[in-house]
Amino acid sequence: MTDLDRSDSIPALGSFSMSALRARVDALPEPSAASSARTVDRQRDFAGILSRRFDRPGQVADPESEALDAARQLVSITLVQPLLAQLRATSDAAPPFAPTPAERQFRAMSDAHLAQEIVKAARFPLVDRLARDMLSRSAAGRAAATDREVRH
User: Fold this and answer.
1) Residue 2 within any structural domain of the chain
2) Residue 134 belongs to a domain
3) Bigger pLDDT: 58 or 4?
4) In the structure, what pLDDT confidence band is assigned to residue 3 with cuts at 50, 70 and 90?
5) More confident residue, 75 or 100
């Protein structure tokens, strides 16, 4: 007789009460500050993948950091993410190891997050070059706009 065969190892659904459930939830340990911070960072990453931007309170966005973020996103979306998608598409895993429908549904978001992490960790020279080009073009654009305002 295994543990699964015994009736006392798996409680019946009717035996749970809301008060017992609340007591079990209340008994769970409180998350640490570090795990809470990681959770918030992961939520911001997820929101970024969904194209929502969250500015951190008290943080002033300077043009250099905005250009660097834009360059990272560009490289992530146009270079790394398609490579990840192609790698996943060529996988011929056997049915027990093949992705489930849920995994296939969220594959694009997973690839987007992984691509962002790869670009952030790898420090590609391409990202730095794109950021410099964006800054120089924006500076040239601001100078041209200022010249037009002075002339009028």
Assistant:
1) no
2) yes
3) 58
4) very low
5) 75
Cβ contacts of 107 within 8 Å, gap of 6 or more = 85, 88, 99
Residue pair 45/116 in contact by the 8 Å Cβ criterion: yes
16 token code pair: 């749970």
How far is residue 92's CA from residue 28's CA, in Å, rounded to a whole number? 41
Q: How far apart are CA 49 and CA 143, in angstroms?
A: 33
Query: Which positions ≥6 away from 116 have C-beta within 8 Å?
Result: 45, 48, 49, 72, 73, 76
Tell me what pLDDT residue 78 has: 94
Cα separation, 120 vs 124, in Å, equals 8
Tell me what the pLDDT averaged over the chain comes to: 75
Number of domains forming the structure of the chain: 1
List the end-to-end C-alpha distance of the chain, in Å, as a whole number. 91
Domain that holds residue 87: 12-151
Q: Which residue bears the tokens 């420090």? A: 123
What percent of the chain lies above the pLDDT cut of 70?
61
Within a domain: residue 61?
A: yes
Give every CB contact of residue 4 below 8 A, 6+ residues apart in sequence. 10
Q: Identify whether 139 is part of a domain.
A: yes
